[in-house]
Structures are given as C-alpha cells and as structure tokens.
Amino acid sequence: EGRVEVYHDGKWGTICDDQWDDRDAEVVCRQLGLSGTPRALSWAHYGQGSGPILLDEVQCSGNELSLDQCKKSDWGQQNCDHIEDAGVSCDPFTGTDVQLCQSDAVKGTVRLAGGRSPSEGRVEVYYNGDWGTVCDDGWTDLSAQVVCRQL
C-alpha cells in the first residue's frame, strides 16, 4: 500500500486522484504483481509527493494489465495539487477473504495450529498482542488460498 508513483520520461511523479477508483487500484495491484482486495485512496492518504504530477483523469475498466492501457490524460496534463495524490492498498486482508471473530481486518502473522503437519491445521492470527482463531462463516477455498499464500 502507498502513494502511487509512475516513471515517465526519466522522472518519477504522482497521479492525481480525479476519477481515481477501485478499478484503477485493481490495475495498479495487478501491474505490481500483488493480490488482494484493491482499494483506491484519495486526498494524499499516504502523504503528498514531490516533483511532477504526471497523470490525471485515470479511468481504467479494471481489466487492463497496466496503467498505460487505461484511459487517462496526456502525460503531464493535469489540474491538480499534491494534496490530491492517489494511493492504493492491495492488502489481501482488507476484504472479506478472512473473517475474524474479534476483528474485521487481519493485519499480522498467520499460523496453522493442531495439524498433523506444518501445512495443515486450524487457522490462527496474531492481532493486538494475542493469537485468535478465524470464524468459518463465509469461509471458502479462496479464503484458504489467501492464508496459504501468506504462509
């Protein structure tokens, strides 16, 4: 997660958050090779950048492989200030893939406990100083894949 910056014509710059949404975030996460629930963040959520603002009015469909393929303003054509720098979170645990009994967000260490081998067992997460279990409500193969990927 962080402020999105792009490299163009020999320099790094930011992206203005005009039209910035989760479909744009999905493309950024894909381009970076990150899985998870993509989320677009606006208003310099991760801090203001410096240097040029290189893109504005980015409008991805969500299926593109990179931002280059998205509809957008011409490079350097913008009407923004760095207070509008776009950000993205690709955190696999910001969505509903894993649902905790005590918390709606899993941030931290995951382990498997009570299994016959290190690759199986009850899913436990370390959160706020304690180990806890994960509720099975809504638990799917996709949820298990997220845990396996983290391990």
Structure summary:
With 151 residues, the protein is an alpha+beta fold.
Structure, described:
The chain has 151 residues and is α+β, with helices and mostly antiparallel strands. It has helices spanning 22-32, 141-150; strands at residues 2-3, 5-8, 11-15, 39-41, 53-55, 87-89, 110-114, 121-127, 130-133. It folds into two domains: 2-89, Mac-2 Binding Protein (Roll), CATH 3.10.250; 109-150, Mac-2 Binding Protein (Roll), CATH 3.10.250. It contains two helices and nine strands, in the order βββαββββββα. A hairpin with a 2-residue loop joins strand 8 and strand 9. The protein is elongated, with a radius of gyration of 18 Å. The two termini are 19 Å apart. Mean pLDDT is 83; it is low at 94-107. InterPro entries: SRCR (IPR001190), SRCR-like_dom_sf (IPR036772). Disulfide bonds join 16-80, 29-90, 60-70. This is NETR protein.
**CATH superfamily descriptor of the largest domain:** SRCR-like domain
Oligomer, anyone? single chain
Question: How would you write the strand order of the largest sheet?
Answer: 1-6-4
CATH C-level class of the largest domain: Alpha Beta
**CATH topology tier name of the largest domain:** Mac-2 Binding Protein
Topology:
Layout: E1 2-3, E2 5-8, E3 11-15, H1 22-32, E4 39-41, E5 53-55, E6 87-89, E7 110-114, E8 121-127, E9 130-133, H2 141-150
Parallel strand pairs: 3-5
Antiparallel strand pairs: 1-6, 2-3, 4-6, 7-8, 8-9
Protein name: NETR protein
Domain SRCR: 1-91, 110-151
InterPro entries: SRCR, SRCR-like_dom_sf
Keyword list:
3-stranded mixed beta sheet; alpha+beta; glycoprotein; Mac-2 Binding Protein; 2 helices; repeat; disulfide bond; NETR protein; signal; 151 residues
